[in-house]
Write a structure and sequence with these properties.
Elements lengths: L3 E5 L4 H10 L3 E5 L10 H9 L6 E6 L4 H10 L4 E4 L5 H5 L5 E6 L3 H11 L5 E5 L25 E4 L7 H8 L3 E4 L4 E3 L2 E2 L1 H19 L1
């Protein structure tokens, strides 16, 4: 199985274009104002207007109001939603788009509750290393051996880098991997050398698993 790759926290045109050129499956745009990777509606419109390669776009929110999510969706053409807060399944499904639900692996009880709540409606569960109520992009990995069993396709995130993503894939065999800080030079600024190295590491891991 080919491991899908998502680069999250993209807010620069050059980074988006390079991610697409590398053949990544998805790019995440962070509509969470407190994040150093935040992108506003106007900038997101300009960024997506220049895309020349097909890549899935994901709009990330954290405990945003219904009005704010709707305003983004009315202005920016995205394929998926991603929710990082305490959003209910009813809220997540109310926008008529497939959604990814982030699961906080640093809070086992909350993780268990979220998995139970969203397993029948989320299209993807994204297991991240943050605590409940906190944003991702921490640069810290969780114990991949503790990944819960679920019938929903899973992505793993949190502390992934070009150096360890192969081990993560070999350990978890996830549907996909999601990277933020592991391909950055500083928060919010992607490093193209690291981006390429990350993609190459995933491809190597997939090739090794097929042997």
């Amino acid at each position: 199985m080919r491991t899908r790759i998502k680069f999250c926290g993209i807010n620069q045109q050059t980074d988006f274009a390079y991610a697409a050129a590398l053949g990544v499956d998805a790019v995440g745009l962070v509509f969470y104002p407190s994040s150093p990777r935040y992108i506003d509606i106007e900038k997101a419109q300009k960024l997506l207007s220049k895309v020349t390669r097909i890549v899935t776009t994901v709009a990330l929110f954290m405990d945003a109001s219904r009005e704010f999510v709707a305003r983004v969706l009315n202005s920016v053409n995205v394929d998926y939603l991603q929710f990082h807060g305490g959003e209910s399944p009813t809220f997540c499904t109310s926008f008529s788009l497939p959604y990814i639900k982030a699961i906080p692996m640093a809070d086992s009880e909350e993780a268990r509750k979220m998995i139970a709540a969203h397993s029948n409606s989320a299209d993807i569960l994204l297991f991240d290393s943050h605590r409940a109520g906190m944003a991702g992009g921490t640069g810290v990995a969780f114990d991949w051996h503790q990944l819960p069993k679920t019938d929903v396709p899973i992505f793993i995130a949190g502390g992934l880098t070009p150096e360890n993503v192969g081990q993560a894939i070999a350990t978890c065999h996830p549907h996909g991997v999601d990277v933020v800080s592991g391909v950055e030079s500083v928060a919010g600024v992607k490093d193209h050398i690291k981006m390429r190295a990350f993609v190459q590491a995933v491809l190597r891991a997939d090739n090794d698993s097929s042997v």
